[in-house]
Amino acid sequence: MSFTVTIEDGPRFEAQAGETLLQAARRAGVALPHECGWGSCGSCKVTLVAGETELMFANAPAISPRDARSHRILACQSMARSDVTIRLSPAAAPPLALPSREQRAELIGVEELAPEIRRFTFRPEGGADFLPGQYAILHLAPGLRRAYSMCNLPDGTHLQIISKRYAGGAGSTALAAMTPGTSLTIEAPFGNCTLKPRPGRKIFVAGGTGISPILALARQAAQEGVDFEAPVDVIYCARRAADLAAGDELAAAVNQIPGARYHPVLEEDPEGRAALTGRAPEAIAAMEFDPAAVEFYVAGPPVMVNAVKAQLKEAGVPITRVHYDSFG
């Protein structure tokens, strides 16, 4: 079954049952504004003029009661349930530097990094184009999609992610069960938590598997020889030393960035191996920085990222200087 999607004063395209308006448009070669692909940024909001749609992710952060009253929907989360007509916003977001696309990918490698934490290497058909700090959406099963940031530098061929298996987590469990040779659909790239190699104080904060994008950003700065002309601190938070997945790789990249310092931070440190103990907010509080002249790159679970954002807001750091990814 398929439905016709009409853009007011624009083209028409067909949407198959079970695919979002954004997926259908991309398949038809129609460019709809979008950024995150995950329902958190709101860049893909369109007005539903006629017809019916169904939400894939009913609790998407960018959805508000006001949007419902004004018939504003998220193209990345809305599936057609009839022929529909939509209207694009006059202030639609500009196209992404690298347009996202949907492609099949083969899992070619799985590596154990820490307890229940693995690195997965995929080879997408047609190549892998992304920027360090961006992420992909993996279709792990019918109706089961999850976002994962890339940890490798772009090589045009491979895409690597780091994931932890959580008890009861449908997405992480499905991914952990995959073996090399498995094929799945990937949408990529998404996200704008990318490196801004301008001079000035930088603080990078990774929590748990938030190591993935922070590792990619550190590797980019090291490879490109970026000198930020100011102190750079890279904080990696985990519960125990054994949970610092790819910590040695992050430390090696940081050591190649002029003026950068690596800080492993542990909640539990009976052997006194970490220079700092506690959680991300405590680690940030131990840093010296000018709120008006510092940039933060933050990646980790939503609870951590939200706590850090609140802390930085209270400290007077402008939101435009806080770049973050938050996945649960």
TrEMBL record:
Spell out the Pfam families in the cross-references: FAD_binding_6, Fer2, NAD_binding_1
Under the heading InterPro entries, the entry gives:
2Fe-2S_ferredoxin-like_sf, 2Fe-2S_ferredoxin-type, 2Fe2S_fd_BS, Beta-grasp_dom_sf, Cbr1-like_FAD-bd_dom, FAD-bd_FR_type, FNR_nucleotide-bd, MRET
Q: Where is the secretion signal located? A: none
Task: Please give the superkingdom of this protein's source.
Answer: Bacteria
One of the entry's Gene Ontology molecular-function terms is: 2 iron, 2 sulfur cluster binding
Domain (FAD-binding FR-type): give its ranges: 100-196
Spell out where the chain crosses the membrane: none
User: Where is each 2Fe-2S ferredoxin-type domain found?
Assistant: 1-92
> Mind telling me which PROSITE patterns this protein's record contains?
2FE2S_FER_1, 2FE2S_FER_2, FAD_FR
Recorded protein name is Ferredoxin oxidoreductase
Taxonomic classification, please?
Bacteria, Pseudomonadati, Pseudomonadota, Alphaproteobacteria, Rhodobacterales
